[in-house]
Amino acid sequence: MKASWTEESLDGGACRVPVRLYRGDALAKAPPLVMHLHGGSFLGGSLATGQAIATLLAEAGAVVVSADYSCANEHPFPRALQLSYEVLGRVCGQRAKWADKKSALFVAGEEAGGNLAAGLALMCRDQHFGALQGQILLSPMLDPFMATGSFRKAEAKPTGCQWSDGWNRYLGFGANACHPYAAPAYCARLAGVAPALIVTAEDDPMRDESLKYARRLNDAGVIVRESVLSIPTGWPATYSRCPAVQPGWGETVRSQFVEFFQETGALPH
């Protein structure tokens, strides 16, 4: 399935949020509707840098609303999360416009966008936002302390690297590192959140925190599908490369999306 996109904007409360709408050329009657959030370590990122993952989601059969939350990046937590929650509410309320009134709703994101997607899933549970059917997290930034073995292997340092700088900007001050929406790795109560697909790779600095989060979700009774790619991926840097040439991991990740949509009942088998 091929996918194309158009650009629009949505009301995010504090500002208008640019979005790209991705659609495949052969959709199911009620395709899954995904709000996607790009990476960028809370330092940057754009709709363009999120194109590769948004395209794969659309090729997997979803209608994708990829939202650019970067207007909130200059402000500490919870601005970007609040903005994303506002946009999610708009997407949910207009699902008949974007896809179909019976479409299942998902959140998805890579790296910093994965942090926001995980935080949104927690917010949706706590605020009784009953429409969310799944969360898709790729290399999610979940643990601001960056002390895992996969981070040490990547030689990511607590200062002078993009993730530490991004965490410092996003958290604003140390107390926010304990907030479950800001640092989902330290959320004490995970039961009741939407089913999750968590994708990482052997060469991914966020591998260990991703897998630990998957285990904790599973222990809390949440349906979890996890995948660790063994091939070299260059994640998270390669997420932002132009998808004109499909990456070596593209087909595998797209298949993971399809299977997750099927398992959650959003697409027929």
TrEMBL record:
Signal sequence residues: none
GO molecular function terms attached to this record: hydrolase activity
Keyword Hydrolase among record annotations: yes
InterPro entries listed in its UniProt record: AB_hydrolase_3 (IPR013094), AB_hydrolase_fold (IPR029058), Carboxylest/Gibb_receptor (IPR050466)
Domain Alpha/beta hydrolase fold-3 per the UniProt entry, residue ranges: 34-225
Gene3D superfamilies: alpha/beta hydrolase
Pfam families per UniProt: Abhydrolase_3
Alphabetic keyword roster: Hydrolase
Protein's name according to its UniProt entry: Alpha/beta hydrolase
